[in-house]
From TrEMBL:
Residues 32-65 have a biased composition (Low complexity). Residues 1-85 are annotated as: Disordered. Belongs to the phosphatase 2A regulatory subunit B56 family. This is Serine/threonine protein phosphatase 2A regulatory subunit. The B regulatory subunit might modulate substrate selectivity and catalytic activity, and also might direct the localization of the catalytic enzyme to a particular subcellular compartment. It is found in: Cytoplasm. It comes from Cajanus cajan (Pigeon pea). Pfam families: B56.
Length: 540
């Protein structure tokens, strides 16, 4: 009993404890007991002290007369110390010495110990629990960030292993899935939702900052670090993009971009992994919090694509980016998506008609807000489109624009008419005036005659004036054709009304009887009689 009591009294470190290391740039920490030097000696590292340890040459530090009691305390600590990721009692979890308080030769060893100390994860769901330990860990994490930022020698393999272990222990976790249970997303209205905040952010933020400094550090050798920042590590980082905390996604975006830039060997894998996230989002869940951030990264990546574009990149455009217009919540990431699409067209103008036809394929019919967004993106794409590509898609494109011109939602009609304010697009239209004007002329005339919004009527008059000044003969021809079509439509309407009146008369005459009226036979006889009357009139 006395030995156990003595064993719990902290001892001053021996002089030799500052000079013995394992020869790999790190020493064992106070929260796990093992032998890393090849000798069979156990060591005890207490908080606020640097322990003695056997060196790689087999030399053993001096032992005091309290060796027995120390060993007993070691065994007790080993039994009671929780595994990595759990919460440690305050009697054990105490601050280690500052880097300023140890000689340079021991700083890297202390660095490893602090990393292991920060592998303990605390529960932030109870804000009143483990306050002292949480603050100790936070201060230790800040020290680690400063150390990584100021180090002036290459990180060795042991340091990289411990750094990635600490990062993985703190960051990689199961995200709450309560808001991701539905098969399809409802129309997204993010402004009505309260932002979700990660309760452990006081620690997570510093760990993210640590990872960013580590990846960006010139002392990080990519050839060595790729063993630890590997495919598995990248995949688990990508999983975190589904976090609902915007602050976390911003850090992830910056870090993944740095990883993509530094680890060239991982670039194809990262692109493929992002593709898979998009495929699942588009065709299965339509639920993901980080699509905008992933597209922002891809916008930078696409901007750096070498010319001519690889077939792999073109397939990515067709199979992933264009179908991203399909989900209902496209408004959440449309700005970033539009930038990526435009980058492709600017890189290779031959892709313009592919993009435009893709937009038409996913064009919204009943969602006016989404339609306005599509028209804005269409303008950006057309601004980068050349005449040859424009001609390949002009007919389906202006059939759709004609429908937009007649939209009762004034913002849709107005946004479509704004296309003529763009000089490049207006020139493309006038070069293909003979094809375009016959398609959209009826829409222009109907707007002028009957659209409820004065601004739309005014803009339509301006567009009509542009066409009449460009080719008056074609304009008059289209006007005549429209008037003839109007007369035909009026005659057809009168015929339909006449048939319905006759049907009503027959129904009224037979209302008192139980005789069934065969409508199809009657309609046929009326049609035959009408045709006979027309022939007789023509013959006379």
């Amino acid at each position: 009993m006395i030995k156990q009591i003595f064993g719990k009294i902290p001892r001053k470190p021996s002089k030799s404890s500052h000079n013995n290391s394992n020869g790999e740039g790190g020493i064992n920490d106070g929260f796990s007991l093992n032998s890393s030097s090849g000798t069979n000696s156990n060591t005890l590292l207490k908080p606020n002290s640097v322990s003695s340890k056997s060196s790689s040459s087999g030399s053993v530090g001096s032992r005091s007369g309290n060796e027995t009691s120390a060993q007993q305390f070691t065994n007790q600590t080993k039994k009671s110390a929780p595994p990595t990721g759990s919460v440690m009692a305050s009697a054990v979890y105490e601050a280690l010495p500052s880097f300023r308080d140890v000689p340079s030769s021991e700083k890297q060893n202390l660095f490893i110990r602090k990393l292991n100390m920060c592998c303990v994860v605390f529960d932030f769901n109870d804000p009143a629990k483990h306050l002292k330990e949480k603050d100790v860990k936070r201060q230790t994490l800040l020290e680690l960030v400063d150390y990584v930022s100021s180090v002036n020698s290459k990180f060795n393999e042991l340091a990289m292993q411990e750094m990635t272990k600490m990062v993985a222990t703190n960051l990689f976790r199961a995200l709450p899935s309560s808001n991701h249970d539905g098969k399809l997303a409802e129309i997204c209205e993010p402004e009505e939702e309260e932002p979700v905040m990660e309760p452990a952010w006081p620690h997570l933020q510093i760990v993210y900052e640590f990872l960013f400094r580590f990846v960006a550090s010139p002392e990080t050798d990519a050839k060595l670090a790729k063993r630890y920042i590997d495919h598995s590590f990248v995949l688990r980082l990508l999983d975190l993009f589904d976090s609902e905390d915007q602050r976390e996604r911003d850090y992830l975006k910056t870090i993944l971009h740095r990883i993509y830039g530094k680890f060239m060997v991982h670039r194809p894998f990262i692109r493929k992994a992002i593709n898979n996230i998009f495929y699942r989002f588009i065709f299965e869940t339509e639920k993901h919090s980080g699509i905008a951030e992933l597209l922002e990264i891809l916008g930078s990546i696409i901007n750096g694509f070498a010319l001519p574009l690889k077939e792999e990149h073109k397939l990515f455009l067709v199979r992933a980016l264009i179908p991203l217009h399909k989900p209902k919540c496209v408004a959440l990431y449309h700005q970033q998506l539009s930038y990526c699409i435009t980058q492709f067209v600017e890189k290779d103008v031959k892709l313009a008609d592919t993009v435009i036809k893709g937009l038409l394929k996913y064009w919204p019919i009943t969602n006016s807000t989404k339609e306005v967004m599509f028209l804005g993106e269409l303008e950006e794409v057309l601004e980068a489109t050349q005449a040859a590509e424009f001609q390949r898609c002009v007919i389906p494109l202006f059939r759709r624009i004609g429908r937009c011109l007649n939209s009762l939602h004034f913002q849709v009609a107005e946004r479509a008419l704004f296309l003529w304010n763009n000089d490049h697009i207006r020139n493309l239209i006038l070069q293909n005036c003979k094809v375009i004007l016959p398609i959209i002329f009826p829409a222009l005339e109907r707007n002028i005659r009957g659209h409820w919004n004065p601004a739309v009527q005014s803009l339509t008059m301006n567009v009509k004036k542009i066409f009449s000044e460009a080719d008056q003969a074609l304009f008059d021809e289209c006007l005549m054709r429209f008037q003839e079509e109007e007369i035909k439509n009026k005659e057809n309407q009168e015929k339909r009304e006449s048939i319905w009146r006759q049907l009503e008369d027959v129904a009224a005459a037979n209302a008192v009887s139980n005789e069934a009226v065969l409508v199809s036979r009657f309609v046929s006889s009326v049609a035959i009689a009408t045709s006979a009357n027309q022939l007789a009139t023509a013959g006379g």
